[in-house]
Automatic annotation (TrEMBL):
It is found in: Cell membrane; Lysosome membrane. Its main location: membrane. InterPro entries: MFS, MFS_dom, MFS_trans_sf, MFSD1. The chain crosses the membrane at residues 52-72, 79-99, 105-123, 135-159, 165-184, 219-239, 259-278, 283-303, 309-330, 342-366, 378-397. Signal peptide: none annotated. The keyword Ion transport does not apply. This is Lysosomal dipeptide transporter MFSD1. It comes from Raoultibacter timonensis. It is a multi-pass membrane protein. Residues 14-401 form the Major facilitator superfamily (MFS) profile domain. The lineage of its organism: Bacteria, Bacillati, Actinomycetota, Coriobacteriia, Eggerthellales. Homodimer. Interacts with lysosomal protein GLMP (via lumenal domain); the interaction starts while both proteins are still in the endoplasmic reticulum and is required for stabilization of MFSD1 in lysosomes but has no direct effect on its targeting to lysosomes or transporter activity.
Length: 413
């Protein structure tokens, strides 16, 4: 491991590696969405098998997301991420040579390891390099990785010459991350390490105490429920938009991938711009109501829109609103429980995020939607999920009021 003399340069490198670690998981998954039809035809998989493989990377996180923070504390964030990166590298290479359902499922499942550990420990790692004044910006930049990965995974994969070539690209990216983290991955700066090590004795038992305090509050369960239903809505949209446009509307895979990309582009822009809107009006709830309604309508009607500009705009706006709602879910643990408890609360929320992404799709959505072939029923169910998630988010005390309070306090100081 190299420690650079320029702290700011190494902080930027660590930020880039955190971004790339989450990118690999999302990119590997959304490659499947970008070539869903070809993928099923190439390997002879049914829609049910495709849905299981697509959500496999989230499924394993259900059992590990909550404890990943504890594991990181035990053996160190750098070490746990390095182990995860090695497993992902092996999985992405194995995926190239996997021809059975079982082999594809297992290899895709382990492709999500770095994304899971980075998602839970993202704030902790960046908090070890960036001061409080810039930590929000650093985390904000890191959270753009998912929509970017979705856009590239869906949009570029449909242009690639073969499925094997697409999988090789992912393996190369995972190799770059493994080498980069091995050389430069460091969970905190020397200054912060010294301060934390000095106070280490005072923090014994804090994780368990924080966990007990968090699970006693009703809002963590409402937040987890909102996370579950939002992801249960997002995954069918991303996984089956391409297939619905090819099979039901008669588009070629490249054109279908272009429309699906509009969703991910909208997600990236919406997740960055919407916080500025919330800051201006100092309220989340009006935004939640408007965005939830728009997203539910977009999920249901998007694939039925006239092919062309109208369909692209509908999908873009749908992605804008959906991306903003998901960004709120990932931000609120910090705003509700503070930085000291954010990792514990975030780990619990992440568990429900992954459960919504995997269990709901394979056990509820796909069976009710005729094995994934009834697109009208599939997107109807996804729209209902979104409405339920929006209602749960609305019930949570409006965190937008805190933005004004924090700004006023900062000015007084």
């Amino acid at each position: 491991m190299f420690t650079l003399k320029n702290k700011n340069v190494q902080a930027a490198i660590v930020l880039a590696l955190v971004w790339l670690g989450v990118f690999i998981a999302s990119y590997a998954q959304n490659q499947l969405a970008g070539m869903s039809v070809q993928f099923m035809e190439h390997y002879g998989f049914t829609p049910e098998q495709y849905a299981s493989i697509y959500s496999a990377s989230q499924f394993i996180g259900i059992f590990f997301a909550f404890v990943s923070g504890i594991l990181s504390d035990k053996i160190g964030t750098r070490n746990i991420v390095l182990i995860a990166a090695g497993m992902v590298l092996i999985a992405t290479v194995a995926r190239i040579f996997a021809f059975s359902f079982e082999a594809q499922y297992i290899s895709n499942m382990f492709c999500g390891f770095t994304g899971m550990f980075m998602a839970v420990n993202r704030a902790k790692i960046l908090g070890g390099w960036f001061p409080p004044a810039t930590i929000a910006l650093a985390v904000g930049i890191a959270t753009t990785t998912t929509p970017v990965a979705n856009t590239l995974g869906v949009g570029l994969t449909s242009l690639m010459p073969s499925i094997e070539f697409a999988f090789i690209v992912t393996a190369v990216v995972s190799a770059v991350f493994f080498i980069g983290w091995f050389l430069f991955g460091k969970e905190r700066s020397d200054e912060i390490a010294a301060a934390e090590d000095k106070a280490k004795g005072e923090d014994s038992g804090k994780v368990l105490k924080s966990l007990v305090e968090i699970i006693k509050t009703p809002w963590i369960w409402v937040l987890c429920g909102g996370a579950f239903f939002l992801m249960a809505a997002q995954v069918p949209l991303m996984a089956f938009t391409n297939a619905s446009l090819v099979n039901a509307r008669g588009l070629d895979p490249v054109a279908a991938g272009g429309f699906a990309t509009a969703i991910t582009i909208g997600m990236g822009i919406g997740s960055v711009v919407t916080p500025l809107i919330v800051k201006a009006i100092k309220a989340y709830r009006p935004v939640i109501v408007i965005y939830a309604v728009i997203t539910a309508l977009g999920i249901y009607f998007g694939w039925q829109m006239p092919v062309g500009v109208i369909m692209y705009v509908v999908y873009f706006i749908t992605g804008w609103c959906l991306g903003a709602l998901l960004a709120m879910i990932f931000t609120w643990p910090v705003m509700i429980y503070g930085r000291e408890k954010a990792a514990t609360a975030g780990g619990l929320v992440q568990t429900f995020v992954l459960a919504g992404a995997s269990l709901a799709l394979t056990n509820i959505t796909i069976p009710l939607a005729g094995g994934g072939s009834n697109f009208e029923m599939l997107f109807t169910i996804a729209a209902v999920y979104l409405v339920v998630g929006g209602i749960l988010m609305f019930l949570i005390p409006d965190q937008g009021k805190k933005l004004g309070a924090k700004k006023k306090a900062a000015e007084e100081q």
